[in-house]
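Before relying on records like the one below, remember that each one covers exactly one chain. Contacts with other chains, cofactors or solvent are not represented anywhere in the record.
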Amino acid sequence: MSRSLHRIAILPALAVAALLAVPAVGHHSTAMFNWGKEVTLNNATVEKWEWTNPHTFLYVTVRTKSGGTERWAFEGMSPSHLDRTGWSKRTLKPGDKIDLTYYSLRDGRKGGFNVSVKLPSGQSLRQLGSPSETPKAS
């Protein structure tokens, strides 16, 4: 078989392979969090609530024992997931006083993965169904 005929025979095979290729669903790991070990943070003040894809972010400030403040940051599930579990982009507003639970960051920084929030009204909302549930790509 000549070289040009060989190349022509390979082209349909490459085209079929390209059509059958399935893109991989990418999602980062939860290994950066102490997954399944809920920690409570009480009397936090909402600074900012980012309702963004692929993950929401919650920024709060907390008073220290010395009278200063610390800024904490929490990653959360996607807006589409949270919408299905009762959250909205209006759930948290700057200035809201909340209690929350989270899975801490393994490296000790102030923040982690937000598990639940107790709103000023007393209503509690969870981002996950149970402590062992791992987020799925949304």
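Residues 14-26 have pLDDT under 50 and may be disordered.
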